[in-house]
Amino acid sequence: MSTTTREWHLAARPHGEPTPEDFRLVEVPVPEPGEGQVVVRMVAMSVDPYMRGRMRSGPSYAPPWEVGAVMSGGAVGRVVASRAPDLPEGTLVLTDAAWREIAVLDAGAVRRLPSPTDVPPSWFLGVLGMPGLTAYAGLFRVAAFTPGDDVLVSGAAGAVGSLAGQFARLRGAGSVVGSAGSPEKVAWLTGELGFTTAFDYHSGVAEGVAAAAPDGVDVFFDNVGGAHLEAAIGALRVHGRAALCGSISGYNAVEPPPGPRNMSLMVGKRLTLRGFLVGDHTDLRAEFTDTVSGWLRSGDLVVRETEYQGIENAVPAFLDLMRGVNTGKMVVRLTSDPD
Amino acid sequence: MSTTTREWHLAARPHGEPTPEDFRLVEVPVPEPGEGQVVVRMVAMSVDPYMRGRMRSGPSYAPPWEVGAVMSGGAVGRVVASRAPDLPEGTLVLTDAAWREIAVLDAGAVRRLPSPTDVPPSWFLGVLGMPGLTAYAGLFRVAAFTPGDDVLVSGAAGAVGSLAGQFARLRGAGSVVGSAGSPEKVAWLTGELGFTTAFDYHSGVAEGVAAAAPDGVDVFFDNVGGAHLEAAIGALRVHGRAALCGSISGYNAVEPPPGPRNMSLMVGKRLTLRGFLVGDHTDLRAEFTDTVSGWLRSGDLVVRETEYQGIENAVPAFLDLMRGVNTGKMVVRLTSDPD
């Protein structure tokens, strides 16, 4: 076993778009595990848009990363040494301890995953993990989707959006419209993923929505905010509902971004806009896991990852995620794993 | 009986703030009632902010008034001649046929009111009518108020706002904060109406909210929109809810008004913003009438009207309403009535 590991520290709080200089890769010794602890070698770690918020100081729903300290985030890892009887060597676990290759963790800080899994371990960071439950809870509970609804998804080629759109299709949406950031993503949405139609928002968000959904939509699943939210408020029909999952368009903003100028439409159309966090909806996890596992087994649900290799590429992966380089879930592979 | 009546016609669609020149008072003959019709002499008519929308062409939730034709709106009137057996002379009725002194109406176009009433007939245009049900449905259903909630009301000295705030108090709000447009209104809210605190928004909306509710609120009842909505999104706590009833600050806008710049807060705070129209909630009418009648009988609920006199003052009343001159419900008294 290595006696050192590499880990990413936050070097500075960015003003605007983060840069590589805001992070520092540090080599540190791996301590000996104490009683009740395990040594976990990370197989894959997650980079997610919400992490941009953790780079800020001040109160937020996830605690801020501290400058000069290791960052944290979701990862799947393998127990390589154990002083916890319930977590023998070889156990596959989910942790929030990544941005490092090896971590020594209390048994209570990890969640045991099925092993051997019938899916790649990294899928517990995506379709079977937090992004999957986010899409599921947002669409079915927060937006109160019902079969026949016409659905608009922003950030539709991302980890959450690509699932939300497919979940809508699989549950009988009237139509599913996706907004994405490149012609290749648009082609993927309308091809392999089975979206009804899709558009590249670089050609205009309002124009894209108007062309793709000229008769409006019933549900909006928003990962982007800003102009997408304004266009969606315009497109939502009477009694339309929006689940507000994120607003990546504004995460690097230095000044408050303009708000939707058409909020007054909410009264006449009796619209509901509802922000949500997946952490409020963990009671859906069993139902979600059953349902999505079934769709995976039947082949109805398409999963794609954009995978970067090696801890040294975790920050490039995060920076590229914030620029929309990924298609599907962005993950960083840290070690090969026999599963 | 008069053989002529006066009625207001829409003369032009305003651009921006309506002016007296957009309306015309016309004297017309009163036709003879046909079989199944009644002649109704209006006792009091309503002017309401939503009517600004009816001055526009194009689709909206209430049909637009036509240029050159009589306008319509809520009124309480007395049957003065009848060819409808169920509506004998003397019956007090609610109609949508005002902006006129006398109307000949099909029996199906009026709703019978209790007569003699134990409340002034004009209250069926306010506390016991559409504005009352709006406040009731908005607070208790749309915003899902629960006892203990801290509540913020914009337009709190208006017909709907003054009721929404009192309903919250009567159902056990933790605190009720009101925003209004003059020191006199503020004094009325914190005095007779029992609001916990209130502020004059002319001194700054964001500042007023921050000073009046430094620890935030759980529910926002919005009649104003614009800066009030932005400030409320900032002030709402985790799982906060807003009932969007109207946005009078933008009704005369020629250009789209700026939207709230802090929509991204909706995710982390899991806020719900919900627009509504009273017409979707008429199933609450019996419960509403029972509850509010009880509060009126016990003297717990304070009702104030701003009353203008005579059909010739209906347009001045409407224009003053749009400028916030009224305290409580704005009504136009058209005839004295023995009740």
Automatic annotation (TrEMBL), chains A, B:
Stretches assigned to the Enoyl reductase (ER) domain:
18-332
Supply the InterPro entries for this chain: ADH-like_C (IPR013149), ADH_N_2 (IPR041694), ER (IPR020843), GroES-like_sf (IPR011032), MDR_fam (IPR045010), NAD(P)-bd_dom_sf (IPR036291)
**Keyword Nucleus appears in the UniProt entry:** no
Q: Where is this region: Disordered?
A: 1-20
A GO term for molecular function: oxidoreductase activity, acting on the CH-CH group of donors, NAD or NADP as acceptor
Which keywords describe this protein according to UniProt?
Oxidoreductase
Q: Is-annotated flag, keyword Zinc-finger?
A: no
Q: Name one Pfam family in it.
A: ADH_N_2
PANTHER family xref list: PROSTAGLANDIN REDUCTASE, PROSTAGLANDIN REDUCTASE 1
> Could you tell me what this protein is called?
Enoyl reductase (ER) domain-containing protein
Source organism of this protein record: Geodermatophilus sabuli
